[in-house]
Amino acid sequence: GRTYHHAPTRRERHRGHHNALAQSRGRRGRAG
């Protein structure tokens, strides 16, 4: 399995940011 993916790394922060962006896109209709 990909344990590193779940590990608390710098990518995790990036993923969180991307998640928020995706949600905003749906509500605002634009890529933030």
Key traits:
single chain; mainly alpha; elongated
Task: Report what the structure shows.
It is a single chain. This protein is mainly alpha-helical. The protein has one domain. It is built from two helices and no strands. The longest helix has 19 residues, at 10-28. The protein is elongated and about 25 Å long. It starts with a helix and ends with a helix. The model has no long low-confidence stretch (mean pLDDT 59).
Provide a short characterization of the protein structure.
With 32 residues, the chain is mainly α. The protein is built from two helices and no strands.
Average pLDDT over all residues: 59
Order of helices and strands: HH
Number of helices: 2
Work out the radius of gyration: 12 Å
Secondary-structure topology with pairs:
Blueprint: H1 3-6, H2 10-28
Keywords: Acyltransferase, Pyruvate, Transferase
Protein name: Dihydrolipoamide acetyltransferase component of pyruvate dehydrogenase complex
EC number: 2.3.1.12
